[in-house]
Amino acid sequence: MTTGELSTPQTPPPDTALLPTPTVSDPPGAPDDPDSAALARMSLIEHLSELRVRLVYAAIALLIGFLVAYAIDDQLFAILTWPIREVSHGKVLLIGTGVGEAFFTKIKVALIAGLFIASPAVFYEIWKFIAPGLYDTERRMALPFIVSASLFFILGGYFCWAVVFRIGYAFFLSQYASIGITPTIRISEYLAFSAKLLLAFGITFEMPIFAFFLTRLGMIDHKLMIHHFRYAILIIFIVSAMLTPPDMVSQFLLAIPLLGLYALSIGVAYVFRAPQAPNPAAAPAGGADAG
User: Which of 34, 108, 114, 143 could cross-link to 66 by cystine, CB 3.0-4.6 Å?
Assistant: First the structure.
């Protein structure tokens, strides 16, 4: 008898009905797990507690900046009103119509200047809040983020004061001159107009900074920004309308630099883009051709 003629005895399959049914346990993060839900709630409470701590520290920094600015508020008010006095050659008249208007104007000027003074501490608290969600390599960018964000925030305010105010006030005063009226402006209205523009330019000048860090974190790239450029134009004009006083000149004075900053952000995203990983499928083909 040959080995090919030997047959292996066939064992009948076991009766599956008699086998115990395996139990499938829920994953640890299932919504029905009460422990996981408790951990999620605890995590949310911890985040809210951390946010409260950071807001308190930022408020303390703002208070210190306010006190420093209030000590020199007379000089700060003179600096703030310099552009309109310069373009009007000293002919514009700033007036106050309320008993406490001068006092509250000083308070507001000190608050605005205090925010610029305290901006490094404020950006530090922002970084401390988002740092727990970053990797160790990403946390090393704390100092560059704080320095660059503070620098661009102050640079945006300075650009508004030195360039935008001169252009905007020259245009508005020329409208008075065209109808033969000497402008008399309330200091509270002047401050409200100036404060909105200063803060708007300070915030919007952060665009290249956030483009750099979001690119380094792999969240955006230059191709994405170029692809959505037309939507960015629409958003920029909407934001300009929201951040500036209700007139077309102020909106364009903010929108045009914003478009330039968006183009600069595209360049930043391209220069600091993440290196592309080598294609593993191309390596064997190259090696085969070389052989």
Answer: 114
Residue 245's φ and ψ, nearest 5 degrees, are -60, 160
Q: What is the dihedral of CA 150, 75, 110, 114, to 10 degrees?
A: 20
Q: Is the pTM of this model over 0.90?
A: no
Q: Are residues 190 and 122 in the same domain?
A: yes
List, in sequence order, every beta strand (DSSP E) within the chain: 93-95, 184-186
Q: Are 219 and 147 in contact (CB under 8 A)?
A: no
The parent domain of residue 164 ranges over 45-195
pLDDT of residue 274: 63
Nearest to 231 by CA among 262, 199, 275, 206: 262
Decide: helix, strand or coil at residue 150. Answer: helix
- Pair 49, 182 in one domain: yes
Same domain, 188 and 65: yes
Q: For residue 188, which amino acid is it?
A: S
pLDDT value of position 35: 43
Q: Which residues contact 27 (CB under 8 A, 6 or more apart)?
A: none
Closest-CA residue to 138 (of 219, 225, 203): 219
